[in-house]
């Protein structure tokens, strides 16, 4: 697209009288809105509507009957109080926080370490880097099913391996309520590493080489260089990685369903699995919407944080 | 992620207007495309059946049965298979967009929910008869006395055992809880467990717990009764003996079958739907028996499982009547027998069941078990899912260390509070 200004159009030859400037402005404004309109329509239709619908639904008695009669009587805050008073909700909230924090920390640290490692040149760099991308290519449910086999207490590969090298080999990875959440976090870290590595690797490539030269001239140690050059220069990328990672981790569902089904004894029940259970197992869509809304609120808080962080970066 | 700064072109006053029009047109098209996705055209000679036959073999058997019935009735019957866990939600969505298929095959434990919502037609009004079908199975397809679902075949759980392992150990097939515990203990050896069952955190686990709960005269209406506590303590004892793997809490019924086939378990609790897989291993010599009972002489009460064919209310009475004829054909004596022989499940019809017993005598125990079996939703109806979720959590807590009593007390509270 080429750009030119309205003044150019006004000066164009062949026009006897200059058009009314107010009318021109109006047209220009209209045109601007015209370009924004499809995006607005799209957002309202596919994001705004479901969002509002979900909020409304959380105040309704929404049951299988509703699908036939389209009647969903409002029941005030009944759904909310029922869900918030349920002991399982508190548990799920806590598990979600632990799961998200643990996953992000693990994914980020290992991803960053690998990104730094791969930013040097060495033989087979490319091959190894693409191998690390593998977990990203595997669908979540497939990873879940494969890991469920690997982590089986009696016949799993992991315990067999640990037994052979003399490290016990009897860990109840997925069958003890004390260990299951940790196992699920570990699997999710494995899944999340490639994403973190790729984005951080890209960020590292953007840092000008001269800064490192200057640092080495100043006699800075490797750690000092990392802390004073690499980290600050990576900051915007780190924000992106963490916020996007947060959004995809906090709502996790498929991995947990495939690995543990929320068990044993609700030890891996998160807000994501709870929404699923309320809506699609118990068919209490109102209660499901409540949990969904809580998830949206948490994500929205982070989205605000992300936007603010980006704005200060811009200045 | 970086966004390219948007450059807005403005050549003259005419250009933007055209751009606006075309963009608006695009917006309208996108919206239109999104909305027309809902509408569905009904063809007068084509009837659709939604079921969960996503396995190749089941899909094929169903397709063959539908072709035969279609030919007989002079129509075409199409099959739409979705994963079992999605039948209910898909049917609900289709109900709200008024595009329900003519026949839906629900799992019998889900049918009450759909019936309660007012979505099903009484099959008797469509001319379906229930003569020759045992009372229990008519009830299985009924909700609050109305016959909504015709069962082609039913299934239940039984005790599968590896004949070679039992023979080598010189042991008899156990019939009581004490014998089962004893036998399982003696068969546990090295990497092999005496017994395998599923106590996973889903309906599979609850399905497997019910024969222990019911045979001990416990009941889902009172989860913290001494009888249920005793049944759960029995499971705990098996686990503490080492006769059950601790992975039990993470196993589905399919996992249990894998363990049995791999020789990691000498006996297992499972259903006839595994028979086809079991038969793929010719070196495996297995037998089947009723699930052991608390005391000799007690009835072994298993859960009645299986699917029922229902006619959802579509508002078009002529089509509903025709759909009733399709159900009558698919659930008729002849098709029942064919289906049962294919799938190793027990025909619902008495006459067909008698023929079936002659043809597959090795599954006799299963037919006996079915005669005593009970439906999960018989007492709680649509409330079953709450009780089931509470029960899953309870037996998992108990099997991983808590006391059965405390876990079941909490489960009862949770089930009654509806959360």
Question: Your description of this structure?
Answer:
The complex is a heterodimer of chains A (315) and B (419). With 315 residues, chain A is mainly α. In chain A, 73% of the residues lie in helices and 0% in strands. Chain A is flat and about 65 Å long. Chain B has 419 residues and is of the alpha/beta class. In chain B, 48% of the residues lie in helices and 13% in strands. Chain B contains 18 helices and 15 strands. Chain B has a five-stranded mixed beta sheet with strand order 2-1-3-13-6, sandwiched between helices. A four-stranded mixed beta sheet of chain B has the order 9-10-8-11. In chain B, a hairpin with a 2-residue loop joins strand 4 (142-143) and strand 5 (146-147). In chain B, helix 2 crosses helix 12 (317-330). The interface between A and B is large, with 60 and 63 residues.
Structure described in brief:
The complex is a heterodimer of chains A (315) and B (419). Chain A has 315 residues and is mainly α.
Global structural class of chain B: alpha/beta
Number of DSSP-assigned strands of chain A: 0
Oligomer state of the chains in this structure: heterodimer
The biggest beta sheet of chain A is recorded as: none
Percent strand of chain B equals 5-15%
State the end-to-end distance of chain B.
42 Å
H/E element order of chain A: HHHHHHHHHHHHHHH
- Biggest pleated sheet of chain B: 5 strands, mixed
Secondary structure: helix percent of chain B: 40-55%
Parts with pLDDT < 50 across at least 5 consecutive residues of chain A: 1-14
Mean pLDDT of chain A: 87
Helix content of chain A: over 70%
Distance N terminus to C terminus of chain A?
A: 29 Å
Summarize the largest interface: chains and residue counts. Answer: A-B, 60 and 63 residues
Number of strands of chain B: 15
